[in-house]
Specification:
Elements lengths: L3 H11 L6 E4 H7 L9 E5 L1 H9 L5 E2 L5 E5 L3 E5 L6 E4 L2 E4 L1 H11 L2 H17 L1
Parallel strand pairs: 2-5
Antiparallel strand pairs: 1-2, 3-4, 4-5, 6-7
Length: 128
């Protein structure tokens, strides 16, 4: 399980260019303080980060929509062009905005996402 401090430490270990990715879904909610922990770290990115990783020998999987997914064992999943939207910086890390996380979670449509959407909507109302 990853708390905010663990997410920051793991991303510092990976040392990706912060201009090429963003933290999304559950890990983003942890970064906002809306969840205590998450089971993994999901990142969205543009094609440049995927290309860099592939050129370093990391294998990408092609998804049905022809975007790519990379799993950095055991805990980081990187999705090309997934969850794009506005970005906020938390502790110098790019994090998808709550509004953009809602959009992603609506697309996923899982039971756990419905609960998260309510938490995010409350956060947006109280944040303004």
């Amino acid at each position: 399980m990853y708390r905010k401090e663990d997410i920051i430490n793991r991303l510092n270990e990976l040392n990706f260019n912060k201009d090429l990715y963003w933290i999304t879904t559950g890990a983003a909610m942890v970064m906002y303080g809306l969840k205590e922990f998450t089971s993994d770290i999901d990142l969205g990115c543009d094609g440049e980060l995927i290309s860099q990783l592939e050129s370093n020998g990391v294998k990408a999987t092609i998804l049905p929509d022809f975007t790519k997914r990379i799993l950095i064992e055991p805990d980081v999943e990187i999705f090309e062009n997934w969850g794009s939207g506005s970005i906020r910086f938390i502790d110098s890390f790019p994090v998808l905005s709550p509004e953009s996380i809602i959009k992603v979670k609506k697309e996923l449509g899982r039971d756990k996402d419905i609960k998260d959407i309510k938490i995010l909507e409350e956060f947006i109302v109280n944040f303004k």
